[in-house]
Amino acid sequence: MSGNDAATATATARTPAPGADGGAPGEQPAAPRGLGVSVPSADARAKAGGTYPYAADLWAEGLLWAAVLRSPHAHARILSVDTSAAAAMPGVRAVVTHADVPGAATHGRKIADRPVFAHDVVRHHGEPIAAVAADHPDTARLAAAAIAVEYELLDAVTDPEQSFAAPPLHPDGNLIRHIPLRYGDPDVTGDVVVEGLYRIGRQDPAPIGAEAGLAVPRPDGGVELYTASTDPHTDRDLAAACFGLEPERVKVVVTGVPGATADREDAGFQLPLGLLALRTGCPVKLAATREESFLGHSHRHPTLLRYRHHADAEGRLVKVEAQILMDAGAYADSSAESLAAAVAFACGPYVVPHAFVEGWAVRTNNPPSGHVRGEGALQVCAAYEGQMDKLAAALGLDGAELRLRNVLATGDLLPTGQTVTCPAPVAELLRAVRDFELPPLPKDAPEEEWLLPGGLDGAGEPGAVRRGVGYGVGMVHMLGAEGTDEVSTATVKVHDGVATVICAAVETGQGFATLARQIVQEVLGLDEVTVAPVDTDQPPAGAATHGRHTWVSGGAVERAAKMVRTQLLQPMAHKLGMSTELLQIQDGRITSYDGAFSTTVAEAVQGKELWATAQCRPHPTEPLDADGQGDAFVGLAFCAIRAVVDVDIELGTVRVVELAVAQDVGRVLNPAQLRARIEAGVTQGVGAALTENLRTAAGLVRHPDLTGYALPTSLDAPAVRIVKLVEERDVVATFGAKAASAVPVVTAPAAVASAVRAATGRPVNKLPIRPSAAVAPTNS
């Protein structure tokens, strides 16, 4: 068996057999099924049984192991790279540097500005310089460490405000994008004016499983990449360009994705793998350490925000002025798109007749920034909600009441000039969380049952604990923006009563594989529906971001299933002398409108082979113009959260007691899955609010591990009360459903910060909230 055959066989063997839950065909339960019910996750059994095909588990005959040498400096000139000692080590099969890249020397999903391997200068801590393939992982790591690199240290630019005047860090310059938004009259002022300066930290996606992959050379001189890609066709095209190959000679096979809250796979892991496989003619595997994962992939943009809000004496917003500075790190990645979201949503889900916002994304020598769930929107939400708290205090109004006087509704205008045409029940959401019953105060329970801030063994005293209640109202856009061509293709096949969905939409934990089964069950009335594994031999479906697979890929699956339905019903309708519209499929049976004809779907499809392919492409958008104006977004989703916190005002420790959530979801397609997505998003937002910050010193990442980077644990997760899900369908969205997981991530940090302000009287203008920011003034 060749290496290619072995890897393919291994990957196939570890892929869940085509059953409803990763088990064998025929094992699906007969009920529940279809849209609107809590169908179990398609991969639940495989994950629980340990057979889910993660990339770190793959194997192939003749496997070699890879290791990558990374820069220990944030900014340095490379004077020389000596690989001779590494190449001479026993067991080493290949060493590659920038000189061994046969195609494009740089890559990037949006802008190709990132070197495959640094060759003249390193621009961030952890940038790849060389890679090694060896017959044992320890040998590969030792060989990588044996590569001698001579550096000339350069001053690192780590403050984005200094980037404007600093020498160019990249041939493209330091400024990635500047967006000035001008809307209304700049000379208008309000009766009350409040100002604020806000800083948002560097949140890491911190995937459950660190990056891993397997590259297998093909007989035609190409290569197959087995990775947890969330956008396989883009990754294939990027890799093909760097390998100097036609895209048809590079195949990306998606393995099990162990969770994704960002672009799951960084190309800095995939490209060395492919190069080493092509150089050695052997399968090559790379399993990154947790440290490499922190250094290599993109993080949420650290952001500096300056705000000035104007309001009239009744608390209605008159004008918002803002400056937004996003730290992109060394390379552009998706920073231009993140900045557009930040600028467009800088005023939040509020009616603002006059807005003037300046936004910049700049390069520094800090770790790279890119797409992380709710990018751009989270940063500005924390800032504009801080401003709303300041306005409420200045006007002597309740925070919820001030917000209710200003909320957006369908038909209002965004500061970009775009009309909100989708459902925007912001007032309904805010009232729902405001009116929800508050949790009992600690004084209502025995003192020994209190859970003090700081944990079960918290050192604080009950007398120092203050309770705070705060609010956050957030918004995100769905699908791509500013002219992105959103399209997905899907095929539905029916053979002997079993339906198969073929679509390159990657299941990242958002539930697309389950949704695809539900759609086909709903349209065709079949119980047995399988979803084929994803690879780039299938037509593109796009990236697994912004809820797009529910909308775009789900729409393609529905259209293909309806075409198959017509193929199935047409012969029966012709025989009965009626149109197919007079036949319905329900509860596994096909019946005529008058009840004179009835048969089971299973009988109707027996022995037949039907198939159809369809596409879904939402209406187009347009880029923001020179004044930040334009219809840049396909749809919007909104969320309101009320946070209740307990703060030890002497120690500064914070415990989130409860988060009450109300969200507009368009339509509930799978209740259990939807609630799980919202709860997970809220918890990720709590991490951004209190603990998560990838710290750096002079551009060097400090403690790049899960002890130095504090993720929320089960003890940190608050009670999440989903008090209302507004099902007002968006008529342009597939099924009327909206993206569910990003908007609670965006809103939760703002709500927690608002509650801490209420408890302490402190401004709380930095995320995550450090203990020093939560210590109340001495006169409190």
UniProtKB/TrEMBL annotation:
<feature type="domain" description="Aldehyde oxidase/xanthine dehydrogenase a/b hammerhead">
    <location>
        <begin position="49"/>
        <end position="155"/>
    </location>
</feature>
<dbReference type="InterPro" id="IPR000674">
    <property type="entry name" value="Ald_Oxase/Xan_DH_a/b"/>
</dbReference>
<dbReference type="InterPro" id="IPR008274">
    <property type="entry name" value="AldOxase/xan_DH_MoCoBD1"/>
</dbReference>
<dbReference type="Pfam" id="PF01315">
    <property type="entry name" value="Ald_Xan_dh_C"/>
</dbReference>
<dbReference type="InterPro" id="IPR016208">
    <property type="entry name" value="Ald_Oxase/xanthine_DH-like"/>
</dbReference>
<protein>
    <submittedName>
        <fullName>Xanthine dehydrogenase family protein molybdopterin-binding subunit</fullName>
    </submittedName>
</protein>
<dbReference type="InterPro" id="IPR037165">
    <property type="entry name" value="AldOxase/xan_DH_Mopterin-bd_sf"/>
</dbReference>
<dbReference type="InterPro" id="IPR036856">
    <property type="entry name" value="Ald_Oxase/Xan_DH_a/b_sf"/>
</dbReference>
<dbReference type="Pfam" id="PF02738">
    <property type="entry name" value="MoCoBD_1"/>
</dbReference>
<dbReference type="Pfam" id="PF20256">
    <property type="entry name" value="MoCoBD_2"/>
</dbReference>
<feature type="region of interest" description="Disordered">
    <location>
        <begin position="1"/>
        <end position="38"/>
    </location>
</feature>
<dbReference type="InterPro" id="IPR046867">
    <property type="entry name" value="AldOxase/xan_DH_MoCoBD2"/>
</dbReference>
<feature type="compositionally biased region" description="Low complexity">
    <location>
        <begin position="1"/>
        <end position="19"/>
    </location>
</feature>
